[in-house]
Write a structure and sequence with these properties.
alpha+beta; eight-stranded antiparallel β-sheet; 6 helices; 10 strands; about 25% helix
Amino acid sequence: MPEYAQIQTYATYTARNLQTLLQLYRTVLEQLGCTDAQVIAWLSQVEWPASEEEGFGDIYASPFSLHPVDDADPIECAGLSISFYTQSGAPSLEDPPLWIAFNLLFDVAKIRRHAAPVYRSGVGGAIWYIMRELAESFREVGIYFTDEWQENQSWRAIAENVGDPWIFDLAIFPRELADRFKEVPPGFQGTVIEGGFGFAQENRWPALPWDEAGS
């Protein structure tokens, strides 16, 4: 079974705003050069979970391409998953907010160097550009690029106040969360962007993603 990395995007949702969030995500994909009518149609068919089984989410398991930069090669996504989180992993006396997670999947074998945890040249710039576009529309807890072991850990640290938020290879988070990230661990490099910050694990990239992207 392939190993995946993913760009993780989160938002709190209600029955009233779910379709708005799905439309917003579709719009960002189209802005990033997605011309695959099937994945756009699939996103249009996602509905409010009607049962506990549906509450886990769904996956579009076919590859499609994004073309985030006009004068660069497209990047292939292995699929797209949507997860609904209706229960908190941390004890609480209050009803937790409902969260939706959009995960753009990438086959690790295609984006990393052979037998090394370092991403191939050009991957960081493309991933950074995609994350910048998503961050403009989804600003609650940031956008995270993670591997399978890191999946959801930063989000849970922020949403549930448990764990370490520095569990990612690359992230963009809004200025409002600066206090959560003020103590930078060794091995991370950061940059300031409009309305927020970006951080990357330096040893995962041949060049820092924002330098490679030129932004």
